Amino acid sequence: MNVSATLNAFRLIHNPSLCLPHATISTFNHLPIPISLAFASSLDGQRPDIRAVVLDKDDCFARPRENVVYKPFLEKFQALRLAYPGSRLVIVSNSAGTNDDVDGKEANVLEAATGVKVLRHSTKKPGCGPQIMDYFHNAPDSNVTSPSQVAVVGDRLFTDVMMANMIGSWSIWVKDGILREKSLVGFVARLIGYDSHTHADITMGV
Hints:
Number of helices: 7
Shape: globular
Strand content: 5-15%
Structural class: alpha/beta
Low-confidence stretches: 182-187, 194-206
Oligomer: single chain
Number of strands: 8
Helix content: 25-40%
Order of helices and strands: HHEEHEHEHEHEEHE
């Protein structure tokens, strides 16, 4: 159970805009590089100074409960690694790297398969924003001095997008992901961060 998502959902009563993304793409392959191109430029023509990227895993760049990059996304994933090397790219999952991941086994497998750091965090999204910023601040090569220099990419409005807005970062919502839900209930469950793939019929996205 994601206690963090349940507790933080009450914030939406007072501020519904917390679950609104700054940019929306269909799938991971539609992610622009550099990431700043996803966001509209300001009146003076400037775009955000994105120095680091937080990646969700399931239905973002990997199939649910798989710890490898989805094959059609490999080229984009490698391009992202080159653009944001070292500590500037980190995977933050609500499965791998959490307290549910006994001895960090899932995180270790994911790191070996992707070559990207998986954040170990005790609080699940959307409540782990402070832990993410601590990670960047303690990694000199990230060059991150402000949450506004971080972009969060994920398929969940109530976890990935909400977390980005809570800490003052930029968010990119992956609208379709890899697996598309047939049912309305399954689609809504995916948006809020509930693991619907074991409770609803699914089909491959186009």
